[in-house]
Task: inverse folding
């Protein structure tokens, strides 16, 4: 099957500092890849670069996504093409309700796809359905995006947005951080139920914990900007046993 | 008294005096495309006054907007709160001059002032001069003025959800102005948000 994502020799950094030092990665539809590694390895940078965060610079390499040059696209175009990044630290937007935020996101996406705008009733139905999907209380819809949300509510909101946008490739950046077990289950359950043969996910995490709920097909260990080891789920246990420092390529 | 004053359109008295126990809620608005001036002195002459003052300016062309606000606490036990939010772009210029003065007898005063500005261009100018003159010792007062640009992290968050850059910027401006905007009647809110 054709790869959904193909990264070749990716070097990237921020303000003259190189963080990714040659990443190669291929993701096929239907797969879940886990990227594990110690703090500062470049895990979040990889997610940010794939989503097109403007303050990162790609200095070498290529990224093909659904056969297209991902790096040539603006962040919003990447989203329209089905890429989604769940933020490690979701941003608060006072004065903009979650409803209006999602309306803006969805209407731009539908416009790009040449689809007519959803009627207010259709939109509301979708919104309610997806909020129920992640067990979010309906009053969150009228609240400002992430303002006054607890850590768990913010992450749940990320998965809600993911469900609304129905991405082809989801990148979950440390979605487990700051979650208690119940919130972790809800988030993981949401991700699992969104799994389909035609989409894929990259789960970035520091700990084994999340991967007990979202079982990956492929596990990569990222250290100092390079993938030093790739294997199956058994690699997770090896990390648990030996720690990142003992594992090399 | 709850009042909205559109600068350059409605008359703004240069000074207002409050007697003990009176309250005032006033919102000053500088609409886009209008160079204007708002000069206001509030004298809190008796104990227990409540002042809730806010202002909004949106100038993205070549406007000059000048605000000079003086809140003078002559008597104790009064509360005054000020929040100003402005967006300045193009070659526009905004001047904010805000003074809180607390007289020696005005004990138990609470007075706050915040003035925040977002600059949209390199040629836009903001000059903010928040001043606090406190002559009493048993008071709670603070002031803060900031000037900055639209937050790039916020913008990236929205764009990563598929919101186009221009719309993301519009939502950011809306977000920034919202604490003052929501004090205004709907038609005026619309007039301002349409200009974003």
Result:
């Amino acid at each position: 099957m054709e790869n959904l994502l193909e990264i070749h020799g990716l070097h990237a950094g921020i303000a003259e500092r190189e963080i990714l030092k040659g990443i190669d990665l291929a993701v096929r539809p239907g797969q879940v890849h886990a990227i594990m590694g110690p703090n500062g390895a470049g895990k979040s940078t990889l997610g940010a670069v794939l989503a097109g965060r403007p303050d990162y610079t790609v200095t070498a390499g290529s990224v093909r996504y659904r056969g297209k040059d991902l790096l040539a696209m603006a962040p919003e175009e990447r989203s329209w093409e089905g890429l989604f990044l769940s933020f490690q630290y979701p941003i608060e937007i006072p004065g903009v309700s979650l409803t209006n935020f999602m309306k803006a996101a969805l209407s731009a996406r539908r416009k790009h796809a040449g689809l007519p705008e959803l009627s207010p009733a259709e939109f509301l139905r979708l919104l309610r359905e997806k909020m129920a999907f992640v067990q979010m209380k309906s009053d969150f819809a009228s609240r400002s995006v992430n303002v006054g949300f607890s850590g768990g509510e913010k992450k749940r909101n990320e998965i809600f947005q993911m469900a609304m946008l129905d991405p082809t490739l989801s990148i979950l950046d440390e979605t487990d951080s700051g979650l208690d077990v119940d919130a972790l289950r809800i988030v993981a359950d949401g991700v699992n139920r969104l799994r389909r043969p035609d989409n894929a996910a990259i789960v970035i995490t520091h700990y084994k914990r999340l991967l007990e709920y979202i079982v990956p097909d492929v596990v990569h260990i990222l250290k100092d900007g390079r993938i030093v080891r790739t294997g199956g789920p058994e690699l997770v246990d090896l990390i648990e046993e030996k720690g990142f420092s003992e594992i090399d390529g | 008294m709850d009042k909205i004053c559109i600068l350059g359109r409605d008359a703004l008295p240069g000074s207002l005096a409050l007697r003990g126990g009176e309250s005032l809620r006033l919102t000053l608005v500088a609409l886009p495309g209008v160079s204007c001036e708002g000069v206001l002195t509030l004298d809190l002459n008796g104990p227990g006054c409540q002042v809730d003052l806010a202002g909004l300016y949106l100038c993205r062309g070549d406007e000059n907007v000048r605000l000079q606000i003086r809140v003078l606490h002559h008597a104790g036990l009064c509360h005054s709160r000020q929040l100003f939010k402005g967006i300045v772009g193009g070659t526009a210029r905004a001047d904010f001059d805000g003074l809180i003065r607390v007289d020696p007898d005005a004990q138990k005063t609470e007075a706050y002032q915040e003035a925040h500005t977002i600059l949209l261009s390199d040629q836009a100018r903001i000059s903010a001069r928040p001043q606090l003159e406190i002559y009493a010792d048993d008071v709670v007062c603070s002031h803060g003025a900031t000037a900055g640009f639209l937050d790039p992290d916020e913008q990236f968050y929205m764009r990563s959800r598929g919101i186009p850059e221009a719309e993301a910027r519009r939502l950011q401006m809306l977000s920034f102005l919202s604490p003052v905007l929501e004090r205004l009647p709907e038609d005026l809110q619309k007039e301002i948000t349409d200009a974003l």
The interface with chain B takes residues 51-55, 74-76, 78-80, 84-85, 87, 90-91, 93-96, 100-102, 104-106, 108-109, 112, 144, 161, 165 of chain A (CB under 8 Å). The CA atoms of residues 69 and 187 of chain A lie 31 Å apart. Chain A has a mean pLDDT of 94.
